[in-house]
Amino acid sequence: MHTDPYPLRAARRVAAPRRRRTDEPRVSRRRARFASAGFAPAGFAPAGFVPAGFAPAGFAPADGHRVEIRVGRPRPGFRHPATAADLARVLEFFGPPARYGLRRISLRQRAAGAGPGIRVAGYVPPGVVVLFEQPDPPWLLAGRLPAAAGERLERAGARVRATASHVLVEWTDRALRDFVLFDGLMHEIGHHVLDHGDRRMRTADHERRADAYAAACRAALSPLWTVA
After folding, report:
1. Tens of pLDDT, residue by residue, the chain (228 residues)
2. Region entry Disordered: which residue ranges (predicted)?
C-alpha cells in the first residue's frame, strides 16, 4: 500500500524510472529518522527532493520518462487528426501523473472487421493507448445515432444532422483533432490512471470516471490550446 499521493509518486518515478525503491524519498526520510537515533546505515546521506507534481503546467523532467509514439499510415479517405507533435504537447502539459507507466501511443488503421460505428481509441494494458484513423469529414453514418453519442459529438464541436436513414457529422479540423485528443487519448489515459487504483471497479464506473477525467483534461487545456 502506498501512502504518498499518486501525483507525487508518479512524478518521482517518471523523473527517475530506474531508481531503486530503497532510494525513494519516503525511505530516505525514514532512514534519516533512524540516523538521528543512531541507526544510520554506513554511507547513507538523505536525498534532496523537489516534487515535480507541483511544478508549473508543462513540466517535463530533463531525463525523465518518454512515451513512444508510433504513427502508422492511414488508408485513403482516412486521416490521423492529431499529429505526433499534438500528442507530445498534451502529454507534456499534463505531466508525470498522466505519463507514469504509459509505454506507447500507437496511431494506426482500424481493424478490417471493426464495423461502421465510431471507433476513436482503445486501451491495451499495461500502458498502451491506440488511436484509430478517422474518416475524412463529413461523416455519413448509416442508421440512427444513440442520443448519448450525438450529444458527445456535439460537445466535442461537431455539427450533427439526422435524416430518416443517415446521420451527417461535420467537423472542423480543430474540433476533430480535439475530439481525438480528449475523447480518445485522455479518456484512455483515464482508464490507465484508474488501473493504478482500484482494479475491481465495475466497467460502467470505469467508463464514467474515464469520461470525467477526459472532460477535466479538456477544461484544463482547451483555454490554453492555441494551435489551429
Report:
1. 455 555 656 666 666 665 655 555 655 554 444 334 333 333 322 222 222 332 333 334 444 667 899 999 999 999 999 999 999 988 888 888 888 888 999 999 987 666 567 889 999 988 999 999 999 999 999 888 888 889 999 999 999 998 888 999 999 999 999 999 999 999 999 888 888 766 666 777 888 888 888 888 888 887 776 554
2. 1-30
For CA atoms 200, 206, 209, 213, the dihedral sign is positive
* The three three-digit cell numbers of residue 164, written as one number: 430518416
Return d(Cα 38, Cα 26) in angstroms, integer.
Answer: 18
Q: Assess contact for 80 and 131: CB atoms under 8 A.
A: yes
H helix or E strand, kind and range, residue 34: helix 25-36
Q: 0.85 cut: is pTM over it?
A: no
How far apart are alpha carbons 141 and 134 in whole angstroms?
13
Grid cell 530503497 in the structure block, residue: 22
Q: What is the CB neighbour count within 10 angstroms for residue 66? A: 14
